[in-house]
Amino acid sequence: MSFSSKVKSELLHHFGEARHCNIAEIAAIINCCGDISQNNGNFCIKIHTENVSVARKYFTLLKNTFNIECEMLVKRNNALKKNRVYIFELDDDGDKAKKVLMSTGILRAKDGEYNVYHDISPVVLSSTCCKRAFIRGAFLSSGSISDPEKNYHAEFVCDYEVFSEQLKDIINSFGLDSKVIKRKEQYVVYIKEGEQITDLLNVMEAHVSLMDMENVRILKDMRNNVNRKVNCETANLKKTIAASVKHVEDIVFIKDNYGLEYLPKNLEEMARARLEYPEASLKELGEMMDPKVGKSGVNHRLRKISIIAEGLREGNLTNG
Questions:
Q1: From residue 56, how far is each of 47, 76, 249 by CA, in Å?
Q2: Domain 3-205: which topology?
Q3: Which one of 59, 63, 78, 275 is most buried, counting C-beta atoms within 10 A?
Q4: Which pLDDT does position 123 carry in this prediction?
């Protein structure tokens, strides 16, 4: 099961504390995956979804909130040849569809005429809990979250620009930083940062999924920290080895061509120690000296030997 499916499975069992919260969630579901038609003044709502969680939640919300039961039709998606499509149809028998649309702010009366709007009515966002419910319904209908093991990405796919901008504002009212981008003919509200996605899960009250994601984030951060330290230590080790190889080459050059006695006594002592212990650290080399020398002193002496070797290669026969 994907991470998105786990989140939606958890949200399936979460219902708002009040009727207005459930209405807000129904409004989000209809806005995101509903099709509204009108014939001779009679309205019809059709919900199309391939997600069984959305189908179950919509059916339960309608029954609990409006005491309405509607028929469900299950079809095969011929385009994908495997996914089932769940279709709920609520017609205007007894003004049921009209009642739902009016309550959710999707159908509004103006100058004696009823019109369908594809934006979010302030009526369904009367309180913070309603905003949470609306975001929850929108995620169930059109949202997804990538596997946090791979990358951090949450998104809501919307058909209308005005709706996407309003949804973004609702999400951001909780201190998040979602953005909108157009993708082909649709508008996508998205969040990229892992911490913000965990905050989004908290807003939707998907607390189990939140803990699962936090565990993944902690493990990823630990692995990343370990990798950074290993990479840093590896880089430092490579630099140390490269410097050691260069020092040995310079010392061997002086030894083969002029003898180590050519060097001043303190540099000769250092050169012999480096030849004998090519893998020793600067600290270890310093402790071999008599008297002992610090790391900076060892580094200074080795650098001095390299300068002398370079001068000798260029024909400057001085130990300076």
A1: 12, 18, 76
A2: Endonuclease I-creI (3.10.28)
A3: 59
A4: 86
pLDDT higher than threshold 90 for residue 79: no
Cβ–Cβ < 8 Å for 203, 174? yes
Structure token pair of residue 276: 């004998």
pLDDT of residue 169: 95
Name the segment(s) of the chain with CATH classification 3.10.28.10. Answer: 3-205
50: which 2 tokens? 């391939």
Alpha carbon distances (Å) from 117 to 19, 20, 108, 249:
22, 19, 8, 80
Give the whole-angstrom CA distance, residue 65 versus residue 58.
10
Structure tokens given for 211? 């803990």
Residues with Cβ < 8 Å from 258, sequence gap 6 or more?
312
Which residue is listed with tokens 């995620």?
A: 139
SS3 232: helix
**Would you tell me the crossing angle of helices 52-66 and 128-142 to the nearest 10 degrees?**
140
pLDDT, residue 56, reads 82
Cα–Cα distance for residue pair 137/25, rounded to 1 Å? 5
CA dist., res. 247 & res. 238, Å (int): 14
3-state SS, residue 194: helix
Instruction: Please report the pLDDT score of residue 319 as a whole number.
Output: 45
| Residues contacting residue 6 through CB under 8 Å, at least 6 positions apart | 209, 212
- Measured CA to CA, the distance from residue 147 to residue 140 in angstroms comes to 17
